[in-house]
Structure formats: C-alpha cells, structure tokens
C-alpha cells in the first residue's frame, strides 16, 4: 500500500524515467528488426521504469513544476535515451558495412535484398554476420549489460541534471571512427585477397585473350570469398566480443560526457 501511495505521489517522475528508457530501448536494432508489438515494447519499458523508480531516490528529483519546464524535461530525457540507443546501433551497423564491402569485391554487389524486418535493403553477407552478432549479444547476456547501464545512467545523470556538454559531439565522432576502424579491420584481409585475384586475372586476360575472364572470374571470386568466410568464422566469434566491449566502453564514456558538473 505504501508503494502505491509513493508511486501516485511521484507518478510525474515515473513518466520522466519511462521516456528515457523507452527512447533507448526503441532504438535498439534487435528491437527494430524483430518488429516487437508496440504494446509489448511499452510494457517492457514500463516494467524497467518501475524497477528504476523504486531503486533510486525520486524524492530528490526536484524540477520547476510548470508545464513548459516539465515538457522540456520530457524532451531532454527522450533525447538522452535516443543518444544511448544510437550509440549501440552504430556498432550493430558494423557488419552491414563489412557485408557491403565484401559483396562489392566478391561479385555480389547486385545481391541487395529487401530486409522485411529492418525495412531497408541489405546485403546477404551483412545480414548473415549481423544475425550472428545479434545472437551473440543475447546469448552472452549483452541485454543484461544494457539494462544495467540504463539503470546506472539515472545515478550518473539524475533526471533534474543538465546534460549535453561540448564533448558529446567528439564522443559521437569517436564512436563513428571506431565503427569504420572495426569494419575495415575485418573486411580488409578478404578484400585484399580478392584484389590480388583481380590483379592476377587481369594479367591472365592480357596473356590469354581467348579466355573469358568475365565467365570465370566472378564465380572464382565468389568461391574464394566464401572459402575465406568459412576459414575466418572463428575470428568472427572473437570479433563479436571486441565489438561488444567497444560498445560498452563507448556508451559509458558517452554517459560520462553527458554529465554537466
């Protein structure tokens, strides 16, 4: 009974907590691509919000009670949640980036398919790798870490605290830089081998003009690329761990930088 009275007294604070969590969870690629019903997403976010509500001391969350200030606070908390979700989404776009590079070099550049879950076009290779990352994120308990970070963000960034320091933009640029770095490190070995094959076939086409390199070259490149993908599958599993670790550190750095001390 006391909990219900406490909840009724600070229901406005619960709404503020709810919009931050909803903004972060709704932006997650796993949530977007699985097309979870809206009511389930709202219910899940509300459940986490209630846990946060009873964990933190909401009685210290003072703010100007007028409607304009409350609306601004709602918008601010929504943006904080969206920024957190966007940082995670950046790292989930690494494999689609790798897939586009491999597809272009491996002769599968025209194999773009409509992904009904994401609502966009994607390459088959990028989709394959990204599904693996999503499964690894779930099986390794990555969602536990994300929910823990959401809860911890209310301790690092109280709802009545100003946010958005000047270093946020630099941290966002740094996250995008890590995105390109990890993607290129993974794709470049295979792309380099395929480029060497292209160079060798170019020399062969000059020395043996009768050989139709267009008929031989594309299937050969596809075969070699698939063989290399199978050979490097163990590397991919270790690379998933690296991506998750960078995701954790980048998100925590972003939360730290959003604090205006």
Automatic annotation (TrEMBL):
The chain crosses the membrane at residues 6-27, 39-56, 133-151, 186-205, 212-236. One of its GO terms (biological process) is protein targeting. The keyword Membrane applies. One of its GO terms (cellular component) is bacterial-type flagellum basal body. It is a multi-pass membrane protein. It holds the Pfam family Bac_export_1. This is Flagellar biosynthetic protein FliR. Its main location: membrane. Belongs to the FliR/MopE/SpaR family. Role in flagellar biosynthesis. It comes from Candidatus Cellulosilyticum pullistercoris. The keyword Lipid metabolism does not apply.
């Amino acid at each position: 009974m006391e909990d219900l009275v406490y909840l009724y007294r600070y229901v406005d604070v619960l709404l503020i907590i709810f919009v931050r969590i909803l903004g972060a969870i709704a932006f997650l690629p796993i949530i977007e691509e699985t097309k979870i019903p809206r009511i389930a997403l709202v219910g899940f976010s509300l459940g986490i919000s209630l846990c946060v509500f009873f964990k933190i001391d909401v009685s210290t969350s003072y703010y100007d009670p007028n409607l304009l200030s409350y609306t601004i606070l709602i918008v601010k908390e929504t943006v904080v949640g969206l920024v957190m979700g966007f940082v995670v989404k950046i790292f989930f776009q690494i494999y689609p980036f790798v897939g586009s590079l491999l597809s272009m070099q491996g002769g599968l550049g025209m194999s773009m398919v409509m992904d009904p879950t994401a609502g966009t076009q994607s390459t088959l290779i990028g989709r394959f790798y990204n599904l693996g990352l999503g499964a690894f994120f779930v099986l390794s308990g990555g969602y536990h870490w994300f929910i823990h970070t959401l809860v911890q963000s209310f301790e690092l960034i109280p709802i009545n605290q100003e946010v958005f320091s000047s270093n946020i933009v630099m941290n966002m640029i740094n996250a995008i830089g890590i995105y390109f770095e990890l993607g290129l490190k993974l794709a470049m070995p295979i792309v380099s081998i395929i480029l060497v094959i292209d160079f060798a076939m170019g020399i062969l086409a000059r020395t043996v003009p009768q050989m139709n390199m267009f008929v031989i070259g594309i299937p050969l490149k596809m075969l070699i690329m698939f063989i290399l993908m199978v050979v490097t599958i163990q590397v991919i599993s270790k690379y998933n761990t690296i991506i998750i670790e960078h995701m954790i550190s980048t998100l925590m750095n972003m939360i730290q930088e959003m604090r205006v001390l």
